[in-house]
Amino acid sequence: MKAVQFSRYGGPEVLEIVDLPDPHPGPGQVRIVVHAAGINATDSKLRAGTLTFGAKLPQTTGSDIAGVVDEVGEGVTDVAVGDRVFGISDSNAGAAELALMTFRAIIPRSLGFIEAAALPVALETATRALDQLGVTSGSTLFINGASGGIGSTAVQLAVARGARVLGAASAANRNYLAMLGAEPVTYGEGMVERARAIAPDGVDAALDIVGNGVLPQLIDLAGGSRNVITLADFNGSQEHGVRFSNGYVDGHAFHALTEVGDLIETGRFWLPVDKTFPLAEVAAAHRTSETGHVRGRLVLMVG
Fold it and tell me: Domain 123-250 maps to which CATH number in 3.40.109.10, 1.10.150.130, 3.40.190.80, 3.40.50.720?
């Protein structure tokens, strides 16, 4: 099968399309013919070597996938050959013609493969953070970095829970955030003051998605470090006593894959795909991801 791989750490230019042996599912796994694979910020960090999780070179890439089941492993009863599914590729090997999955769900009927491949990591990450922050009906939540894939997801999931959401992003994304159900707050100097202007008593919780050094302000806005979670600022979390949410350590929230269907089918959840790329242009997809100016998600078209 064709798959994306890198044999050295570096920029997007280290990514190659190579031939690898076809994988076969073990107990609890399914194999899918991949139709689409999402691009995540973590993909670039793994490729650059700034995150390794103990993996050795060469490495494959790609977590988010959507496609059609063509083999099932022992004990699998939730899906069958021919089902359209989406979820997380095992061993971070989703940018390929075939991939194995343990965490998966049936694709909601109204979604295509490209839209479905945009969802899994964003869904899991946002749900895990909201669960850890205890966001429920009546909560007021501030999201720093609300217009990207995870931010857009967190906004809508929090609104669906009945929370009030203040979303920080660039001025160009104000209308987009309002459409998702958030009250927009513009990035930059004075951001917290602008948030207090519409929420004078502060907020119950704050979620930092971009890691741009604002944890002290978020702690003040949310009434203490215990009410703040960061997904991007590990060093800042250590310095300021803020929880750094990491699914490898904290436990995952893949239950979100099966739960989101009702929200999608009732029009309460939508995650835009900003741009698509053929598999052969995976390096260009990584370059676009690294600009930090993506609204929604980037997706590779595989089959």
Answer: 3.40.50.720
